[in-house]
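Cont'd.
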Amino acid sequence: MVKSALVSQGYPRSALFQSLEGGSQGSRELLLALSWLLARGPLLEQLLAQTRVQLGDELPQCEGETLASPGPPAHRMETERPTDLRLVEWLMGKLRFRWRRLISSQQEQCALLSKIHLYTRGCHSQQRLGHLSVAETEMLRDPESSRQILQALESENNRLEAALEWRRCELVFWQWMDTVLDACSSDSPAVTSQPTVLPVISERGLGELELVKQELRALQEELREVAEPRRAAWEAQVGGLGRGPDWSTTRKALQEAVERELATLQSPWEPSSNPAQPQRPLRLVRSKDESPGPQGLKAAEVIGTLRAQEASLKKVLHQLQSQCRQELARLAGALPGLIWIMAPGH
Amino acid sequence: MSIVTVQLGQCGNQIGFEVFDALFRDSHCSQGLCSKRENEAYQASCKERFFREEENGVPVARAVLVDMEPKVINQTLSKAGQSGRWKYGQHSCFCQKQGSGNNWAYGYSVHGPKHEESIMNLIQKEVEKCDSLSGFFIIMSMAGGTGSGLGAFITQKLQDQYSSSLKMNQIIWPYGTGEVIVQNYNSILTLSHLYRSSDALLIHENDAVHKICAKRMNIKQISFRDLNQVLAHQLGSVFQPTYSEDVSFHYRRDPLGDLMEHLVPHPEFKMLGVRNIPQMSENSLAYSTFTWPGLLKHLRQMLISGAKMEEGIDWQVRPPFSGLPPLGKMSVHKDLHFNTSIANLVILRGKDVQTADVEGFKDPALYTSWLEPVHAFSMWKTQRAFDKYEKSAALVSNSQLLVKPLDMIVGKAWNMFASKAYIHQYTKFGMEEEDFLDSFTLLEQVVASYGSLGP
């Protein structure tokens, strides 16, 4: 299972999968795999983030990006006998019910959270926060849970201190891994592996970055070459059109429309440097203050971002739906004499 | 999770009262045959779902009462208040001074829009008093004027405003030989509109309930109150608390949601019927004993043969033999109208409920071919007895039970429509013949869909 997980992450060394369980070669391969995982991404930070003790009430993370791209079309499933369409509709209906009940539960959770925040106003030692979170309220009500949270916090502290210690000694580890890899290649030269550059801290993936930069430059050059003549041709065509105040307002409106379209095209591709997109979990606080502080966000901003995401997802949905409709129409057209009757409620 | 009930018209309000009364009485019944702690949990669950607390401690029903004339509402309010055990909210009702003369179009096109804001505000206030809302009951008759037209309108507005909440319409199916000439028009208009905007239509047939009163309860002069009490008993046997499926024996949080997921996820199949057993007068109850095998055998046959009650069941009706080619004799069986189900929910309450064996309901022959019994059948139970019945079983069924009555009503309405009788009463309030035609189309489709379930 570990091996298949590594493969799905793109681990390049095939020697791992050929090695026997146990034995010095096996454990060496495991060590190399571990160091590969550590090197390629902020693994340690991710693990620490996942096991954080949550004291405040948190905003659910925005998962819009993963859903915005439609992904590859689903494979057509071959089954032993054709599935009755009514069964599919039955299952879809069940999904819809579950979805609605989930929304109801979330609304309930919001209402209760709001009550807790209201009722515990003035209870928090930190003036800035003002009221308690659910975890804090629970701690006050039930001494057992406060003991458990304390234990969790202590073990998290230990993990953090271990991580800091690791950071101090990391360089030694990488130098050692270099020697291990050398020993590996000298042991079995028949094992063909792409020269995996085990990253030393200061040169992380520099080669790849260089490659990407070059590709990007080439693309930009290409774009410019194609765009210039078209722009010139358009200018020539349009330049003689109209003058006067009417024309300039139309032109301005056109420019604004184009800019807006460009913005909507670009926004899915922008990295999350949007200030209204929280990079790390934030604590929900109900407060009369206007200013959320330097690290904070106003609820209105987050709502705005979510609404924008909702709008773009809806657009994608409509596109997909019209694609489906066109496909259905094409299929219907292929069968003469077929009449479509729309189901009630559509 | 809580359910807010909207009681519409004379019918809806009278039945609504009996429902709340039955629920309250049962939850405070001392003959629950279970431990004190169990009883308290049962009571608390029922209370949270259907009632709310007010300052002086008398529980208030989570309900909104709507009628176009004040008489019935006033009666209902005072009956509830007098008992001293529970009551309706002081400001939970809406009524006007005039009736609507059994005119569906008047209820839908005039009363509805005119009073929409006031009624929806009342509902909103009741919803805000719920910590968590599961959904709505809308109790209404199908064939009257106010209840049906206004009910269709309000259900649509509920769908717009509370799209994530569930809606179940409790529909009173009129007597076949009813008094209102245009009842069939009203019925098809109501049904077709509700089919589009509601999630589930739980149908209560007056004829069936009447028979239960006459034969099982031995009531000589059957009043509406008697009918309503039988109906309330049926609803209570479905929605009173039952255990949830997971290991921790807690009462189910959201019976309405669980029921809907099991029974009506398909948009073409929304009609539900309810049966329960045993039904008898309180006097006879003391002298009767029941066994689970006996009760379940009868209930199963009631399902298969489409019987309305446990008397006069046709035991000749059998499920068709699956896998064998139809013999000459099979046509005889087909005439006996075997009732094919899509999905069934059986609810068992009372002593030794864990010994009850429901294998008979998992027979694939009972169900349509495209849904397997493991998905089609579900069971809820609790050992806490319901309404003094030591053992009782209820069945909520999505099956062909209602095809015949529906087909009859559509047929009669069509005959009237073909000669344009009484249409002007509807068109003068903004409705068009097109609306009638749409209703006929939709209901014909429903009849066809249910009809094609056959073995």
